[in-house]
Every structure is written in C-alpha cells, then in structure tokens.
Design goal:
It is a single chain. The chain is of the alpha/beta class. The chain is 42% helix and 14% strand. Strand 1, helix 1 (14-28) and strand 2 form a beta-alpha-beta unit. The protein is globular, with a radius of gyration of 14 Å.
Length: 153
C-alpha cells in the first residue's frame, strides 16, 4: 500500500481538494485498494475546521465526492507513517522540512514539481480562484499518479 499525504497551510483548501481529487482518481482507476490518502495542515490556524466553501463548491461542480473533513495538523508521526508527502507551495515545503527534522528519508515533494513545474499552487484562500487551484491540482495529481503507478517517485 502506498501512503500519500497532502499538506497545505491550513488544510481547508488545497490539501483537502488534493485528497478528495486523488481519492477519486485512484478509485476511477480501480486502484483504491493500493492507496492510503489523507491531508494535513502545516499550521494550527484552521485545526478542526471543515473544507472551505469555495473548495467544496468547486469539487461539487466537477462531481468529486467530499467527505466530512476536519482540518488537522501535520505531525512527526505523519512523517514516519506516510511514504510520500506533498506540499503545495514553498512555504509549506519550508514548514514540512522543519517539522520533519530535515526530511531525512527524502519523501517530501512540492506537488507541481512532479509535473516538471517550479511554481507554487496558489492558495485560493487569498486568490479566490478555486478554478486555477483545481487545474493546478489536476496537473500535479496526474503526474503523481503516473509516477506512483510506474514506481518513479
């Protein structure tokens, strides 16, 4: 089983969307029995809160099922448990590096880098553009799935 964790600032927009979208992607590919998928926050600001209404609205619009999500904080135990941990932007990467003790097992990646892009996935909490975030996530998640199914990560 491949254990995948998505992390963003508050765990109410990008990482939560990525979690739902990746679960939907692997289910449609008939691979859900091969994956454990979750998401977490790099900061404490939104802990306990549900998915942002804009993220929920976008996923509903494209027909992706949404669970009963509650934001939670990334922990050292998450680092030990998950095989691959994906941050959404440079700030997340800094936080994950610090919280993991420097990523000694080399399992932390910035999601869009897997698709050959150096840029961040913009936080729709600030931009208000959930469409752009969704498009970036589709690109990054598609690359992730291809790499995991091909054992390239």
């Amino acid at each position: 089983m491949i254990k995948v964790l998505f992390v963003c600032h508050g765990n109410i927009c990008r990482s939560t969307m990525a979690e739902a979208m990746f679960k939907d992607m692997v289910k449609k590919a008939g691979a859900e029995d091969r994956y454990e998928i979750d998401s977490a926050a790099a900061t404490r600001e939104e802990i306990g809160n549900g998915m942002h209404y804009g993220a929920r609205q976008k996923l509903n619009e494209v027909g992706i099922p949404i669970g009963n999500h509650k934001a939670r904080l990334f922990t050292r135990q998450d680092y030990l448990h998950y095989d691959i941990i994906l941050g959404m932007d440079s700030e997340n990467m800094y936080d994950l590096d610090r919280m993991s003790g420097g990523d000694p097992d080399h399992k932390i990646y910035k999601l869009l880098e897997l698709a050959g892009k150096k840029r961040d996935i913009a936080d729709p909490w600030y931009t208000g553009n959930f469409d752009a975030t969704y498009d970036d996530l589709v690109e990054g998640l598609s690359a992730l799935f291809q790499k995991l199914e091909g054992d390239e990560v």
